[in-house]
Amino acid sequence: MTEIILEVKGPIGLTVEAEAVCPHRLSGLAPGEIEAQLVWQGPAQLPLSDFFEVEVREGEGEVRIAIEGDASRIKRIGQGMRSGCIEIDGSCGMHLGEEMEGGSILVRGNAGSWAGMEMRGGLLEIEGDAGDHVGSAHRGSWRGMSGGEIRIGGSAKSQLGGGMIGGKISVARDVQNFCAIRQSGGLILVHGRAVRGVGAEMTGGVAAVLGGIERFSPGFVETGMEEDPVLGGEKRPGTFIRYCGDYAISKNPKGTLFVRG
Amino acid sequence: MSSLIIKNGCLFDPLNGIDGEVKDIFIRDGRVVTDLSGTQRRGAQVIDAAKKTVMPGGVDSHSHVAGAKVNAGRLMRPEDHIRTVRARTAITHGGSGYTIPSVYKQGYDYAGMGYTTVFEAAMPPLEARHTHEEMGATPVLDMGAYMVLGNNWFVMRYLKDGDIDRTAAYIAWMMRTHKAYGIKCVNPAGVENWGWAKNVNSLDEPNIHFDITPREVIRGLAEANELLGLPMSLHLHTNNLGHPGNWEITRESLKITAGLAPSSRAQVPWAETRLDSRRQQTVYLAHAQFCSFGGTSWRDFQSGAQGVIDYVNSAEHVVIDNGAVPFGPATAMTGDGPAIHDLYMLSGQKWSNTDVELECGSGVIPFVYAKSSPISSIQWAMGLELLLRIKDPWKTIMTTDHPNGGVFTEYPQVMTWLMSRKARDQTASECHKWAYDRSSLGEVDREMDLFEMAVLTRANPARTIGISFRKGHLGAGADGDVTIYDIDPSTLDPAHHQNLASALARPYCTIKDGAVIARRGEVLAVPEGRRFYCQPFSDQEEEKEMLSDLKEWFKYYTVGFANYPVPDKYLKRPAPIAVNRPLEALARRR
Question: Which domains does chain B possess?
Answer without folding.
Answer: 1-590 (3.20.20.140)
